[in-house]
Amino acid sequence: MASRGPSLPRITDVAALAGVSTSTASKALNDTGQLREETRERVRRAAEQLGFTPDSRGRALSSGRSFTVGLITTDSSGRFSIPIMLGAEDALSAGEMGLLLCDTRDDPLREQHYLRSLVSRRVDGIIVTGRRTEPRAPIDVPIPVVYAFSPSTDPSDTSVIADDHGGAASTVRHLLSLGRRRIAHISGPVSHHSAQTRAAATVEAAAGALVGEPMHGEWSERWGRHAVDVLLRTSPDVDAISCGSDQIARGVCDRLRELGRSVPDDIAVTGYDNWSVMALASRPPLTTVDLELEELGRRTANLLLDAIAGSPHRGLMELPTRLVTRESTLGT
Amino acid sequence: MASRGPSLPRITDVAALAGVSTSTASKALNDTGQLREETRERVRRAAEQLGFTPDSRGRALSSGRSFTVGLITTDSSGRFSIPIMLGAEDALSAGEMGLLLCDTRDDPLREQHYLRSLVSRRVDGIIVTGRRTEPRAPIDVPIPVVYAFSPSTDPSDTSVIADDHGGAASTVRHLLSLGRRRIAHISGPVSHHSAQTRAAATVEAAAGALVGEPMHGEWSERWGRHAVDVLLRTSPDVDAISCGSDQIARGVCDRLRELGRSVPDDIAVTGYDNWSVMALASRPPLTTVDLELEELGRRTANLLLDAIAGSPHRGLMELPTRLVTRESTLGT
């Protein structure tokens, strides 16, 4: 071990310094056995002096647990999975549980490799997350699993997702409460589950106040700018635009400004995601929906801890989103 | 274990199905001992049929290694540490090493807690990273450590950083090669190491072509827009602006367009970071510097693996950056 730099102090070093046997030192540090308090204290001081740290792997082996959880993600760019991961890590670390990161890069072979490795490490459970809200095929492992953001197609699995329907409806109700009565919807690809859900919720909540059909395109600022041109040709009297993402909403605001339309005086605009780099940099800053992904990660971790403790909660859990109001609807 | 769902098949189950003793099954699966090939094959088939996965923790304990590395990050938002982490994870997983994520949220007490936990788990080494390029105080653990992006203040530690000086110089050389001779520099806070380094490199590389002093402000689009107004009052004949970040450069491009100045025909603009959501969404898309952070993560992991294997490389290693050219300097 010398090659690894200064070696870790061992229990035998602690025992030698305290002048006791190894088994006495072990009992003193584990608060077991019958020892005089003075002896226990001497061993504790020796351990402290040497910087001795007990080997938690022994505890893990004897308890049948590794105090480790695996996180499988397909989201290399991390826009959605990073806050989920940080929330999960926060909740797990409070219980001395470690989080092993496994980035599959959307490669099924890589996912299989990670699952074998995690099972072989005897992790106590696995969190599965991804970048899309489409349900995904469940993983086949004999340990507890919770799906976050990308739910499992199996309804008896435990999945935690954001309430996209409620989130989109909340922006429309906000626009209606401000007196807007000609609301258009511009969103991402119609093939995306999240774009479909948000569009359906918008249509339902806007009812008679909806202008035209939901407009689907890319998740990009460019599409937001282009969609404004199309929209104003057919519906020049629109007074609000609810967008499927902050990127689209930012493009919408930029184009409206270029065309001399004031946001929100002429047209109120809402985004979706509360992605600060878009929502705050937008001119004006965006009223938007926060998916509360870090909280989603915490809830996921706590559900997994319950399952590990033998009390699984099965089914799909939808967490509430939060409407964040800013100048794009309220003005200055 | 019943409470944890279906329990993992054990070596005893494999032995029973194959009709051999547990020790024979173990020898067969570990390719040790003297067994007939037929017996070995029967055990392998039984293991496969049951989905038996060997417990890697035994190997870890007997080898004195945990095949696990801890990653300490202070970068909750993850802009810089996420690609480093993914690169490290990629390099480590190839060697069956797991990466334990520890997000300290810039809290020194939390960092201490994580360090104790990682040492107690007997991780084989630790990667320390952060959001700033300022050198940071080293951590005190008796196992190999490599610092990534945020180097250690101790020059005998192993640190891997991006060559910010070379990166900034490469944008100026590019502008000079395009015939630009009146180059201004707009960057982030003068208190930030990265802003200082990039400004110094720009001043040196631009020499007589530099217009005025480097301008320092926020890392924001808003500052980029404001700085353009200030700059054009004092130096209306500037023909290039090198920026300390893509966010600043995007704001610069927006303001120039609003003022009727063409990018790059009138004024060429360069960014820094190659942050796609800024660099590609900018109008026009930005020529910028890619810090190659994922590669930096891979190199960090490989240096750590060398140190774990007993061959540490000490000192500061600067990795080359990559100039990415786009319309903001080249035009369409």
Largest sheet of chain A: 6 strands, parallel
- Taking all Cα atoms into account, the compactness measure Rg of chain A is 27 Å
Q: Strand-and-helix sequence of chain A, N→C?
A: HHHHEHEHEEEHEHEHEHEHEHEEH
Q: Architecture of the largest domain in chain A, according to CATH?
A: 3-Layer(aba) Sandwich
The overall pLDDT of chain A, averaged over residues, is 91
**Approximate shape of chain A:** elongated
Across the major sheet of chain A, the strand order is: 2-1-3-4-5-11
Oligomer: homodimer
Question: For the terminal residues of chain A, how far apart are their CA atoms?
Answer: 65 Å
Helix content class of chain A:
40-55%
| Count of DSSP H/I helices of chain A | 13
Helices and strands of chain A: which structural class?
A: alpha/beta
Share of β-strand residues of chain A: 15-25%
Total number of β-strand segments of chain A? 12
How many structural domains are formed by the residues of chain A?
3
Most residues in contact, chain pair and counts: A-B, 57 and 58 residues
CATH fold assignment of the largest domain in chain A: Rossmann fold
Uncertain segments of chain A are 1-5
Look at the structure and give the CATH class of the largest domain in chain A.
Alpha Beta
CATH homology superfamily of the largest domain in chain A: Response regulator
